[in-house]
Amino acid sequence: MRAMKTFLVVMLALGACAAERPVEVRVRQTPQGPRIFVDGVAVRPRFYYGSAPCLCPISEVRKLDYTIPFRPEEDTDRGRVSLDGFDDDEPMWFSEAKLIDKTAGTTVRLSSGGEERTRHFSRDGLHLRKGHLYHFVVTHRSTHHRTYFTHEASYTDAAGRKVVMPLPYGDTLGDTVRLAADAQVDFVTFSTDISWGCMDWWAPPGEPPAYGRIDRAFEHVIAANPNALIVPRVCADAPGWMLARDPSLRMVFDKGYPVRMSSVSARPYRKAACEAVERLTRHLRAKFPRNFAGLHVSGQNSAEWFYMMSQSGELSGYDVHTRDAFRAWLAKRGEKDAWTAEVPSPEARRVKRPQGRLDPVLDRRVIQFGEFRQEEMASLLCDLGAAVRRGSDGGSLAIFFYGYTWELGAVVPGAAETGHFFVDWIMRHGKDCIDGFSAPFSYTGRGWPGLAPVMAPSETFMRNGFLWINEDDTRTHLEDLWSFPVNVGLKNKSPFVTRNALLRNGALDILRGHGDWWMDLCGRGWFRDAEMWKIRKALNVLDDAMLRRTKPYSPEIALVVDERSLMRNGFGSSKEVTPQLHHARFRLNLCGATHGQYLLDDVLANPPECKLLLISYARDLDPERRARLDEIKRTHPKMHVVEAATKYDVITEKIVAHAKAAGVHFYTQPLKATVCAAEGYVVVQAREAGPLEIDFGNEDLVVDFLTGKQIGVGPKVSLSFQKGETRIFRLANR
User: What angle do CA 293, 304, 343 make, to 5 degrees?
Assistant: First the structure.
């Protein structure tokens, strides 16, 4: 009896230890493509992203409306709304303020006309009724892009106390985490601050850790789903206290743009950031051992790791740390003037050459500076990923936004200004410290019926062992505020539109092997709907089938660009580059055949199994790469290669002609549908209402995947679709 008691005590102790053993969550490469493994078991790479309800307090040079919703808990005639800029920013312009009582259906105008320029805009003495829903709306604009401000809606109660009114959305994070859990989506990522990432977690030296907000968010998510695997998005930009103590760490712009952002090249910041990320990782893994799954580390412009304001043509890099790091970089390359070199002048960087191509002789130092800044950004991400590895003893995910080749390749100042064009380098140096990369679905295909274009060379990432994760932040029909400083999707009040957009995006991700997360961008309940999560439940079956796939996604058309060529573009290149990046990708999504996105260096190292290699942008290849491409042409005679493409080669008709010459299979006629296929499954979204003929390529029985109904026998089946309707088919004998 005593022996039995001893045995039970030992077993209980071992069970308790096992229960507290940190969960291991990592991406591993497999013969079928990269997978997320949880304690050694491959799982679906599906996440939900949420946050506490928030707005997006960013002003732009164009006029925007800003809406603050609130609901008072008592009647008052002492309501107040304020919008406050920061003291080191220029004042903003405000106009057309009004208070809308959504409950009563009345509007009170609060502006007398004209614009009011101030850092601190407010309206006092507002008459508010208990329980009514109000929208305070004001028009604003600023001198500079991305000018941040704060807002507050409050009233003074009967006891003379100030009562701050929260946004009236309730617990969107907890509610939606529960719905996600019911749909077997346990991966959760969140932010505690306006969706850009958890901030205020990094305390000054000598002060107690400031992990309270993140800890409480973890506890909140775990209360909603005890099995949650949490990957918080944390901002790794230098906190305000650090910039105040050492202003030299701040980015410096050619036109004096007043941004509160740390320089990527500042070594004191980089060292401190890595140490802070490592400490946070250790803390979360120790405190939440069975729920902490990793970090999504964010920073710079919109928390997506491209240099602040680089899209709009603002030139940064004029801080002393960037200059010193550039000199050291030049010295390693044997430049004789390295230690006296300066960052190229704004005039040199803004020079406009024919077709926007920088001259290798005249613009040599500008080209060098562009390459240097790619390495600075990519190496910082590797350093931060290594910090996550150290903090988790190699057991947790490290994820970053990076690699927006198609989205940022045609920006006004040239691709190199963004810092996103060192994908080949980061894949070689990041294999041991980074699990995956991410981006939103492209903002160029968000209308209805829309597309789901990927920003990055996702197939290149996947072939090299990194999981690609698409952020699906398309607004759903549950949104009630439509003002936003960037385009995050169509204004949609239709459940039909929401269902078919989510179904299309989700099915495409699954067939291509991509991960994804449904993102409630501002925490206002975009996915707080059980009907939406039925879509995910249905897709789980497809996901499980793809976990058993026989090989990675292998499209018949490979769309290829050369990031080295893009780095040689400067001001004035956008007009030439846009057709070969944005237009080529957009039209390929509508050609009716399977396609993927690759980088040229990846293709040269390991040619994909495709029928058409469409190199939509590559210029001035060096002799070694030229010889390698010619070798691929000789050794892969069945692969149809189109290079030196012009804007006329990427129109739909030319793409289709090249694809037909290569023997590519078309599931639909061009411009009729968005299509993807793999492992005997085919997803089709119709562009217009009416009959659509689908060529399945063989005489298999065709089954509607979602309903299980037999819909015909291939190869060709004609079906009626609504505009934007998405359907998934399964070939019965595959």
Answer: 130
Domain boundaries, the chain: 25-52+170-313+373-547, 58-164, 555-734
**pTM exceeds 0.90:** yes
Beta bridge partners of 17: none
Beta carbons within 8 Å of 279's beta carbon, 6+ residues apart: 209, 391
List strand residue ranges (DSSP E) for 86-130, in order: 92-101, 106-109, 116-118, 120-128
Give me the phi and psi of 680, to 5 degrees please. 85, 10
- Which value, to the nearest 10 degrees, does the dihedral of the CA atoms of residues 506, 512, 514, 520 take? -20
Say how far apart CA 617 and CA 647 lie, in whole Å.
10
Q: Which CATH superfamily is domain 25-52+170-313+373-547 in?
A: Glycosidases (3.20.20.80)
Let me know: does 607 contact 639? Beta carbons within 8 Å: yes
Tokens of 567: 């780095």
Tokens of 340: 């006296």
Does domain 58-164 fall under CATH 2.60.120? My reply is yes
In this structure, what token pair is assigned to residue 726? 């998405």
Q: Distance between CA atoms of 68 and 77, rounded to whole angstroms?
A: 18
Does the fold of domain 58-164 match that of domain 25-52+170-313+373-547? Answer: no
> In 320-454, which ranges are continuous DSSP H helix?
320-332, 346-349, 364-391, 405-408, 423-429
Q: Taking each helix axis from N to C terminus, what angle separates 172-182 and 530-547, rounded to the nearest 10 degrees?
A: 40
Per-residue pLDDT reduced to its tens digit, 220-257: 999 999 999 999 999 999 999 999 999 999 999 998 88
Please write the tens of the pLDDT for every residue from 537-563: 999 999 999 999 999 999 999 999 999
